[in-house]
Batch of 3 targets.
Target 1
Amino acid sequence: MKKLEEFSIRCGVDTCMIIYNRDNSSGRGPTIWPRIPERVKQVIDRYFSKGVDQCNKHAMDLREYFMSQKRKADKELAKVRSANWAAKYPGSEDLLNGLSQDQLQMVLSVLRMKLEIMKKRHLAAKESAVMNALGMVPMQMDDFKYDTPVHSHMNDYMPG
């Protein structure tokens, strides 16, 4: 109840809490906060006076709450990933402006080679999916060996 009181004070909102005992063997009835029943009744009456539509607009169950939190976290994660991607792989033309024609040709050939490798991997993945669907044992992606690493960076070809 201390947390509820702290919440009410910090957020400046009227709150109430009613806790029902599972077994009413004590004969005490429910525990309420604030301890003044008139205040609890005021909060409940104000809640119901707003109408069902107004109350439901702001109310959410646990599933809705966590989905909302997940959406917020996903949105923030997307921003951070985008910033990381932009920092790691700048897309500025300035990267290519300082290169000679030979260096540009080298970058172009590396990009073409990477594109071909990725096309082969994509085709292998599609064939693997078809074979799985037919109940056959597909070839493992590890079976594809390449002489050139796929993850080399443009910086490897920049003048130092």
Target 2
Amino acid sequence: MNLTELSLLLAGAACFGLALLGWQLYRVKRKQALLRKKSEQRLDELKHLLNRSAVRAEHLAKLIGDLREQVCTQGERVQQIEQQDPRKLPITQAARLARLGTSKQDLAKVCGLSRSEAELLAKLSSNRSSESKMQSAARA
């Protein structure tokens, strides 16, 4: 083997090595591009999820504010009811009127009760008055 053949052999090996290196570089670049694309897609998904979470958080914050307002209002109502004379409460008045024999329709209308509430009060008060009559008869 002379020097020319050796040089050609070395040049061929170098070209083969460069080609192999270029092919490996191409594969790495292609893999990097795929990973970059997947990363960007995942980042877009996460941005979308974050935006949805922010919207939900705003909605929940509004609901919490509304609930706080309702709780405060209910607390004030409870205090007002507790401070009222129990004889002036609509249900107390309705019970008294039912014992006096007021009709179900009038109970519902006058006291602001539903039809079923008025019927219940009328039935309870009629049961109560029949029990009272039975106790009075038993004593006599």
Target 3
Amino acid sequence: METTLVQPAIAVLLSSAIAIRAFKRNSLNLSGAFLGFIVMFIHIAVNYRLGAMLLVFFFTSSKLTKVGVERKRSIDADFKEGGQRNWIQVLSNSGIATLLVLIAWMMTRSQDKCLDSKESQLLTSLIGGVIGHYSCSMGTHGRQSLGYLPVRRGTNGGVTKAGLLAAAAAGSIIGLTFVLIGFFTTRCAYDVALKQQLVIPISALAGLCGSVIDSLLGATLQFSGFCSVRNKVSSTLFEIIMTR
């Protein structure tokens, strides 16, 4: 009984500390910190390796948000110090992955497993979905923060070679985390262990693809316009109309 409570207890303590710290540093607002605690708790309580991927994603993306902060402050009407992500942004970045984690838990009961489609195609797909989810999200953050490209005012979707490389590198960090933590939490047959290494280049590809898709959606579906009064780019049509 005590053993089964250790991991949830660690999850509560670690998730609480990180959520409070993120709130104090303005990385998350109150609603974001509350939902972030729940998401972190689920990941860590279910599987340390999946929890590690989430934490690497959170801390890395928070650091990337602070890159070029002066430029963002000067051109973005929606700029917030530290990011101040709300519950909607937390859900967007981790909602699908959290659902996959819960389904995986129902199959493994917190026992870490190697990726092996011969043993279980469904479990491999679920864990692969979690890896792909965070790799895509990391790739998007990497491109947005490190691959800045001046485009015509009021437009979205510009990309650079540096941004695409940053997206691939950021995605690979998730795969690298999965593989490295796996050395301590799983025992795989030699041939299966070798196949685990493929997660790293696949994660890099996922980061790149996620970034490109995000750019395409931004260029075709996301509205942004230039507010000549505030001299900033805004994603709110009403604000642009009212300041004219």
